[in-house]
Specification:
One of its GO terms (cellular component) is cell outer membrane. The chain is mainly β. The chain is built from 5 helices and 33 strands.
């Protein structure tokens, strides 16, 4: 079936179900579990994030939120966590920050919605969390202060302070946060030749400090019973200071070399976002969402040759400047025929720009100085219509159709100074157009069992950085880019069966899925090396298992276990070998386990998260490799000193994060060149620990 026929069928289904909506006025449109503040405030949470960790089914959505890629614009899907029936309008000012900045005492109740509902500002993927806040809030201050460290890095402080207040339809919040993230890891390399003789060894140690200072503000104003305004502002300043010391040995020549790759990176972000809603009447509602943001970055890298007695000389330098802008405007009109039926339509317009200047200058040996200046602009718009209807008391349908059109312009100026000066200019422009249908059916077998079917066409957004050369630190070169890269399109089919028991404290969801992929983005041969490109056809299919379990039945009170497991496979015609194989970097299975113990002893609780993915293979122009990773373990312990104060001890990579690869290197293109050597690399991350005192008054 062609993509246009599929789109027409989805739209036809929407229209057919619309015709039958008049008979459904008294039918429920969603399976909803409601948690009032009396349920979670007894455990003295401080933030909305704390509240959601106390609700069994919400933990799986928090895990999905952490693993969701950020797209440009709003789109028709969005986060599955809503506040007052609406999505968060910001991008850098994200839903995760909103969860940590919203106080638990300001929450009226939380809804877990399995299905669709006409007043929601998002299309359901199965479970939607809708947080309803109190209309009136009291003045309050929430603060945190702590320290963080790794094995051999000094402890550095971090913290935040947030002020909330409101009256007479006006609520506002202002806050400051310093976030600190130290990273310390070691890489060991070993190479062997055809005779299994070791020819090379290296140890590389990176010590990295990442800091972010941010100031944010939020304003909500109820101008009238029909008009509501929300405005968010954010300013952030990032900084990375890093040293990457490499000590290598050429075993054959018995020679040694020491280098130090020094990073000095800074970036400033600002963002203004918000929404305006206007209720024409009870059945018609208008909404306008907007975002405007900008990033300015100054990224410097030097490689130093370390000589005897600690003296250094500069081998090369890599300065990089870029400015990125995004402006998005989305307007929609929602018509509600009755409480069980609505049509939502509108348009979204987005303009994205990236201007980047990257240089590579050798300061030892022959003269080599390259400069590449790239200017990219993407203009995109979407026209959408979606429809919600209850066919019966137990059957619910949501359908939509989106038309997306985008135009991409890339202009590049390149200059290379060696013994002579070489220059080139290149400009290209392309446009893309897609129809994206969606159909979701939910059927409640009874109060505990639910079936869901979902078909959706998704189209990836090209990362503008894909058109700018990236630095390969191992081989000290700039990667080749692909000006012909296209978005990846997937027709995604899934069926879910969900069962709940023991008053929704326990749940299991089984979801087989199948993805038909057009223009898969993967590694392909380019002119000189390899990089991101497209393969015409591919497929992926598998089975996802998600669930949460309360251990009350085992006599272990206040303990929730949330787990997910995915087993999957894929098929694509390998662009290097022209043989059918799995995707580049594709794992056949992965799992995650999260344990929340809310009352280990009085006032003491803990959370432990474990995750692992199976080994996977990957290839580039001149090598093939297999990667294996160990299980990661993160966790924290909370001690509730009193109602206002909480102490947290947190550890990341508790068993040390480790993975390794076995690589076969070739003289040229791996499928057409002789074998060169075996390579083995091991990564080892040091554990990271922090202690935080938080309070509110």
């Amino acid at each position: 079936m062609t993509k246009h026929k599929t789109a027409h069928l989805a739209l036809l289904a929407s229209l057919l179900f619309t015709a039958g909506s008049a008979c459904c006025e008294n039918l429920r449109t969603s399976n909803v579990d409601r948690y009032d503040s009396t349920y979670f405030m007894a455990l003295e949470p401080q933030t909305l994030y704390d509240v959601l960790t106390l609700i069994p089914a919400a933990n799986s959505v928090l895990i999905d939120m952490a693993n969701t890629a950020d797209n440009r614009g709003f789109g028709s899907d969005g986060d599955q966590i809503l506040i007052n029936n609406k999505r968060v309008s910001g991008k850098d000012n994200s839903i995760e920050k909103e969860l940590n900045n919203t106080l638990a005492q300001d929450i009226e109740y939380v809804e877990l919605i399995r299905g669709t509902r006409s007043d929601l500002d998002v299309q359901s993927r199965g479970l939607v969390i809708n947080v309803i806040l109190k209309k009136h809030v009291d003045a309050s201050i929430r603060w945190t202060f702590g320290g963080i460290t790794t094995k051999s890095l000094a402890t550095k402080p971090f913290g935040s302070i947030i002020y909330n207040n409101g009256n007479d339809g006006l609520k506002y919040r202002i806050g400051y946060e310093r976030y600190v993230n130290p990273t310390e890891f070691t890489i060991t390399d070993e190479y062997w030749n055809l005779d299994n003789q070791q020819i090379f060894a290296a140890t590389r140690k990176r010590k990295n400090w990442f800091t972010r200072d941010s100031v944010s503000a939020k304003l909500e104003y109820e101008y009238s019973t029909r008009t509501h305004l929300q405005l968010n502002t954010l300013f952030e300043k990032y900084r990375v200071d890093s040293s990457y010391l490499s000590e290598s040995e050429n075993v054959i020549e018995n020679s040694f070399n020491t280098t130090d790759l020094v990073y000095d990176w800074s970036k400033e972000n600002w963002e203004v976002s918000g929404d305006i809603t206007y209720d024409i009447d009870n059945d018609n509602h208008l909404k306008l969402l907007f975002i405007s943001n900008r990033s300015d970055a100054d990224d410097k890298i030097w490689q130093l040759n370390v000589l005897e007695h600690g003296q250094t000389t500069i081998d090369y330098r890599l300065p990089r400047l870029f400015v990125a802008n995004e402006t998005v405007l989305r307007g929609n009109w929602k018509h509600i025929s009755n409480s069980k039926h609505s049509v939502d339509s509108g348009i979204e317009v987005a303009i994205n720009k990236l201007d980047e200047n990257v240089q590579f200058e050798a300061l030892s040996g022959d003269v080599y100085h390259s400069t590449e200046e790239t200017n990219i602009e993407e203009q995109r718009y979407e026209i959408f219509i979606s429809h919600n209807v209850a066919i019966s008391e137990f059957l619910n349908v949501q359908s939509s159709l989106v038309y997306e059109n985008s135009a991409l312009k890339v202009a590049t100026q390149f200059q290379l100074q060696t013994d002579e000066l070489l220059t080139s200019n290149d400009a290209s422009s392309r446009s893309f157009a897609y129809l994206k249908p969606r159909l979701n059916l939910r059927y409640d077998l009874d109060a505990q069992h639910q079936l869901r079917f979902n078909y959706q066409r998704t189209v990836s957004q090209l990362n503008l950085d894909d058109f700018v050369p990236q630095f390969n630190r191992d081989e000290a070169r700039l990667e080749e880019t692909n000006p012909d890269l296209k978005p990846e399109m997937r027709d995604e089919f899934s069926m879910s069966w969900q069962a709940q028991w023991q008053a929704t404290k326990n749940s299991i969801t089984l979801s087989p899925y199948y993805h038909k992929i057009t223009d898969l983005i993967t590694e392909i041969p380019l002119i000189n090396y390899s990089g991101d490109g497209n393969v015409d056809e591919a497929k992926e299919y598998g089975l996802k298992l998600n669930g949460h379990l309360s251990l009350d039945m085992l006599g272990i009170e206040d303990t929730i276990v949330t787990a997910s497991y995915t087993i999957k496979t894929s098929d694509v015609l390998d662009p290097f070998t022209n043989e059918h194989t799995k995707f580049n970097g594709f794992s056949n299975h992965d799992w995650r386990l999260k344990i929340n113990q809310n009352e280990l002893i009085q006032d003491l609780s803990f959370t432990l998260t474990l995750a692992k993915r199976s080994p996977y293979t990957a290839a580039r122009y001149d090598y093939k490799q297999t990667l294996t990773s160990n299980m990661t373990v993160n966790g924290f312990i909370d001690y509730q000193i009193n109602k206002q104060l909480k102490l947290r001890l947190q550890g990341d990579y508790l068993l040390n994060r480790e993975y390794q690869y076995e690589r076969e290197r070739f003289n040229g293109l791996s499928s057409a060149s002789a074998f060169l050597r075996d390579e083995q690399r091991r990564y080892h991350w040091e554990s990271r620990f922090s202690i935080t005192l938080s309070g509110q008054f």
